[in-house]
Prior knowledge:
By secondary structure, the protein is of the alpha+beta class. The protein contains 12 helices and 11 strands. It has a 6-stranded mixed β-sheet, sandwiched between helices. Strands 5-6-7 form a 3-stranded antiparallel β-sheet. Strand 2 and strand 3 (82-83) form a beta hairpin. It has helices spanning 21-37, 43-50, 56-68, 85-95, 103-112, 119-134, 187-201, 206-217, 226-242, 267-274, 279-289, 338-357, and strands at 5-6, 72-73, 82-83, 137-141, 150-157, 162-169, 173-180, 249-252, 295-299, 311-320, 323-333. The model is unreliable at 6-14 (pLDDT under 50). The chain has 3 domains: 9-95, Winged helix-like DNA-binding domain superfamily/Winged helix DNA-binding domain (Arc Repressor Mutant, subunit A, Orthogonal Bundle), CATH 1.10.10; 103-142 and 247-357, Beta-Lactamase; 146-242, Enolase-like, domain 1, CATH 3.30.390. Helix 8 (206-217) crosses helix 9.
Amino acid sequence: MSANITRLTKQHLIMPEQLNDRAALLLKKLVYSYITDGQPVGSKKLANDSELDISSATIRNVMSVLEKKGLIVSPHTSAGRIPTEQGYRLFVDSMLETEPLNKSLLTRLKAELDPDQNTDALINHASQIVSELTHMAGIITVPKASHARLRHIEFLPLSDQRILAIMVINEREVQNRVLHMQRSYTTTELHEASNFLNQSFSGKDLFEVRETLLQGMQKTRKDIDVIMQTAIEVADATFSESLETKDEYLVQGEANLVRFGESSDTSQLTQLLEVFDHKREMLGLLDRCIQADGVKVFIGNEAGFKGLGDCSVITAPYSIQGEPLGVLGVIGPARINYNRVIPVVDVTAKLLGEALNK
Length: 358
């Protein structure tokens, strides 16, 4: 499988034709080496890894050219080189060879994203899966409540002026709400109210139902019969709670990032963990990805906010019946193993969409 990777920007992007074959190969080997080891790459190691019959001196000359082009840089603590943000971008856009997922992993993913689970469980499970498989932090946006359609609703009286509301959403998802009301309701009142709501609003999205009910509340009591008045009172309490703003995205597996702080430079780990404090910026970044056609890769400052620093975000949208609902992705250091991580994110997002469709 070859993932469709959407380029975010061509600004300052050096196209591959500006590098000769030797320079392109050495850059590719250097990036792969740094992704694997996390250590600056010297000319001797590149000479051994590149399988080119050239001297270390020649390699040093090529590396000097790559450095002048802004594709690699030499940390002050080492004579070796590491990729720059621009170098990673060229690598991802022009040199990356993604690895297809093997059949056993595909079978496992399909089994774990069982469509018999409710929406919340599938969303949580998908982010857990990408986190576990990539050893990064998994991130996923939660579908908006506007995608929730009422299928059936029932009310049962409880003690102390409380009501149990039972809703079936989107065919199979069941939500229970204990409502604290201003007065007690009889079983008959609640039965008639649920019948009215089911006959009037079954199949409509929750926002539409609530809007209609709010319009009904504007009428004077003499214009509303008893059943409708009861339905408005109990349904308004139910839908108000159901449509309350929830977490707009979930992050799981932050502990996976701790291993990136094991090197002498712990600033990478600190930076990674600080990314999650930029909630507004992160949500804006993820919202930009919802309409994307395929995988998006953000490297460092491409995200549009300073907090991302030397980190990368890889996302893919998930959809129901062709309508994008959200994005699934991972966050990690810029030296993410792109060729393996991209297919995991891409395929898991597609399977999540298929499970939600069913």
